[in-house]
Amino acid sequence: MAVNLGVIRHRWGVGDLPGALPAVDQVTRLPGAIGVPVCDEAGEAIGALWANAEAPLEVLTQTAQVLSGLRVSADHDLEKLVASFPSPTIAIMGERLVPNRAACELTGIGAAEVPTLERWFEEVYGPDAGLIRGYYEADRLAGFPVPRAVQIKRGGRERVVEFHGTNTRGGELWFLTDLTARVSSEERFRAMFELSSTPHLLITRDRIVDCNEAAVRLFGFERIDDLIDRLPSTLSPERQPDGRTSAECGREELDATFEKGRHRFDWVHRRADGSELPVEVSLTLQRSDGTLLAELHDLTDRVTYERGLREARDQAMQYARAKSEFLAVMSHEIRTPMNGVIGMTRLLRDTALSAQQRDYVSALEACGEGLLALVNDVLDFSRLEAGKLTLEAIPSSLHDLADEAVAVVAEAAESRGLSLAVLVDEDVPERVLTDPTRLRQVLLNLLSNAVKFTQQGGVEVGLRARPGASASRVEVELTVTDTGVGIAPAALPRLFTAFTQEDASTTRRFGGSGLGLAICKRLVGLMGGTIDARSGASGTT
After folding, report:
1. Backbone dihedral region of 329: left (phi > 0), alpha (psi from -120 to 50 degrees) or beta?
2. CA distance linking residue 270 with residue 277, whole number of Å
3. What residues does 263 pair with on adjacent strands?
4. Labelling 330: which of 142, 299, 312, 403 has CA 20 to 30 A away?
5. Rounded distance, CA 539 to CA 462, Å?
6. What are the residues whose beta carbons fall under 8 Å from the beta carbon of 295, sequence distance 6 or more?
7. What string of H, E and C letters represents the secondary structure of 420-480?
8. C-beta of residue 409 within 8 angstroms of C-beta of residue 448
């Protein structure tokens, strides 16, 4: 059989501790507990005396030896042993009652005042002595299964003392614990617990021990008794919001509380009417018997607010997708007839026309191409917004791409008297995997802007490999530098924002939608790169 020493903080006495504690053959320490062996007359371990980790090992060892019957062969031995105990202890030998000094100080009753059991019961219990003596005899025969608490009034002071008894060879031992401070503390705790406007529960692993009125209202019940002795699992849905079962999550949260002593987490409960109740739970380990104090905070308003934000976000994203899809469809529908207009204009220009008619046709062709460029920008931007633009990975020559892009703007640059140059470092690979169409689009946009905003000087395209390149991956820096009017420092941060130009006069003077650089930024990002701009008095890069 295992002899367990029931313990709460510095209190100990013989009784059953919650849970199975093993018999041991040597001093054993477990989380929050210490055990010493209890042996038979042959010295073989037959059980264990368990206490909390704060209990003095010397006292536990002495007590275990008493229980083992190894040091007690006569009344004198038991009396001498009890006198050596630092904790309040009383020895009972037949009708003799011998308290040690600590027991006399605790109870306020001197050893000479209560030399016998009969005098003890008369002194402590007064008119109820006979009734309490009957309880004592029953407990003694049963092996003192539970502790008994008594209120002792002596010398103008009142103490609440708990007695844990045990039978041993040579007599009995009573271990005394002063509960006065704890009872006072528990009374204050009870007042705060019951009157608090915050819902509180006292729970164990398998049931609700107590609750306050605020908890009853929170769960939608009518009486405290509706919650007492209820399984905590009956107040939770089958699964929590993360998809795991409430049973699995509950075990994890309880284990964390027992490990740390205090734990806070979000949880979804279920009210009496079956509706969900989101709460923040603070669990605090109250006693060594595994009782937990649960403090609940209703998160319904917060969850409702967060749900509204998510719905508003989803609706905004849906509107944005619908807008992008509309622009993509409309841009495509406009571009098809626009190509026809430009094609017919070019055919018309090749017929016999007067000088004035030819000017009209040239203006018509220029307007059509400008409109087509705008439609193409809107189409690309809407595809990017909708996430429907995909990139290719094709072996391509960066040098050839740069030459092709420069050739496209060569006529415009020549008409302005601007020079064009392509400078390629020798460490740039001959061919790389990239999307040539989209890279050419980015380069053309940058070159077109450079030529458009440069009045004199020239435009230069540079290609160089960045340090740290490997055999399988290389980073290439592509620059477009001009000697144009430059960009105001205040305008640089918004340069790559959609529908944005340096100022309104830029649109009136040079035209454009303000989409080109925004598209460039998105395309470069999709290709795993970055794009930025630097500007000074001598031009822009």
Report:
1. alpha
2. 5
3. 283
4. 312
5. 15
6. 198, 199, 200, 281, 282, 284
7. EEEEECCCCCCCEEECHHHHHHHHHHHHHHHHHCCCCCEEEEEEEECCCCCCCCCCEEEEE
8. yes
Answer with the residue of higher pLDDT: 236 or 133.
236
Q: Who's near 96: CB < 8 A, 6+ residues apart? A: 75, 115, 116, 117
| Alpha-carbon torsion (277, 280, 286, 292), positive or negative | positive
- Three-point CA angle 374, 366, 417, nearest 5°: 105
Question: Which SS3 state, helix, strand or coil, does residue 223 take?
Answer: coil
Instruction: State which amino acid sits at residue 347.
Output: L
Angle formed by the axes of helices 300-349 and 355-386, nearest 10°: 160
Tens-place pLDDT, residues 152-188: 777 667 777 877 777 776 678 888 888 777 666 666 6
**C-alpha span between 22 and 354 (Å, rounded):** 113
Task: Calculate the alpha carbon distances from 314 to 83, 320, 324, 383 in Å.
Answer: 77, 10, 15, 19
Q: 3-state DSSP call for residue 511? A: coil
Percent of the chain with pLDDT over 70: 81
The answer to whether the beta carbons of residues 397 and 439 sit under 8 Å apart is no
Quote the pLDDT of residue 538: 65
What does the block give as tokens for 359?
């000017």
- Strand ranges, E, within 189-244: 200-203, 208-211
Q: Helix crossing, 436-452 with 516-526: angle to 10°?
A: 150
Smallest CA-to-CA distance from 449 within 368, 398, 517 is with 517
Phi, psi angles (nearest 5°) of residue 440: -65, -40
Give the three-class secondary structure for 48: strand
Exposed (0-12), middle (13-18) or buried (19+): which is 67, by Cβ within 10 Å? buried
Backbone angles phi, psi at 38, to 5 degrees: -110, 125
Q: Is the pTM of this model over 0.70?
A: no
Contact indicator for 63, 75 with CB cutoff of 8 Å: no
The bridge status of strand 276-285 relative to strand 539-540 is unpaired
Please count the other Cβ atoms lying within 10 Å of the Cβ belonging to residue 83. Answer: 14
Burial zone of 402 (CB within 10 Å; 0-12 exposed, 13-18 middle, 19+ buried): buried
CA-based nearest residue to 328, from 283, 389, 380:
380
Taking Cα atoms as reference points, which of 99, 310, 298, 325 lies closest to residue 218? 298
Element (H, E) at 220: none
Q: Does the pLDDT of residue 8 top 50, yes or no? A: no
Task: Tell me the per-residue pLDDT of 352-370, one tens digit each, with 9 for 90 and over.
Answer: 888 888 888 888 877 777 7
Which of 68-77, 157-166, 408-417, 489-498 is the least confident region?
Answer: 68-77
* Dist. CA 146–CA 164, nearest whole Å: 7
Look up residue 36 and give its amino acid: V
E strand or H helix that includes residue 379: helix 355-386
- Identify which has the larger pLDDT, 165 or 274: 274
Of how many residues is the chain composed?
A: 541
The amino acid present at 483, given as its one-letter code, is: T
